[in-house]
Amino acid sequence: MSETLNKNQIENLLPHREPMLLLDKLINIKKLLSATAIVNVKKDSFFVNGHFPGQPVMPGVLIVEAFGQAAAALTAHGIDKSTYENKLVFLMSVEKARFRNPVVPDCKLELNVEAIRSHGKVWKYKGEAFVSGKKMADAIWSATIVDRK
After folding, report:
1. What is the pLDDT, as a whole number, of residue 79?
2. What DSSP string describes 24-80?
3. Which of 20, 64, 74, 94 is deepest in the core (most CB within 10 A)?
4. How far apart are the first and last CA of the chain?
5. pLDDT band at 81 (very low <50, low <70, confident <90, very high)
6. Cβ contacts of residue 122 below 8 Å, gap of 6+?
């Protein structure tokens, strides 16, 4: 049986806060392997007024950020709390990101993320983003766990 995390539980795992905490839920969690993040892209999302007036689109960099947050939550949820307490997860690289269709407000963006491999404190992930079953974006990226200063 897969697990689900709500926004409050995600806040307990990640240092991100509004408006930069993009995830609303993490579902279908397979410990340290994969999960699906839900991002409710709303008409009042912080980026809507400026990107682009009259024709809002979720910026691609925020889709990549949401991928990173989903991967960080998946990893933090699966490892021992002492390993990520007083730590931050930093994006190291984005090897490939493709934006196939614009993500427009009022939609539910589903991010399927998968841990490809880990080596010490460095993790590599891949993800695909969907709205109503239509692929919107995909990416491959790496992140590392570092001490808070």
Report:
1. 87
2. SEEEEEETTTEEEEEEEE-TT-TTTTTSSTTS----HHHHHHHHHHHHHHHHHHHS-
3. 74
4. 38
5. confident
6. 92, 142, 143, 144
Both tokens of 41, joined, read 């892209």
Q: Which domains does the chain have, with CATH numbers?
A: 3-147 (3.10.129.10)
| Token pair in block for residue 27 | 């579902």
Instruction: Please give the pLDDT value at position 1.
Output: 60
Q: What is the mean pLDDT of residues 41-51?
A: 93
- 63 to each of 19, 22, 82, 109, how far by Cα in Å? 14, 9, 29, 9
Residues noted as catalytic? 51
pTM: predicted TM-score of the whole model, two decimal places: 0.95
Altogether, the residues listed in the chain come to a count of 149
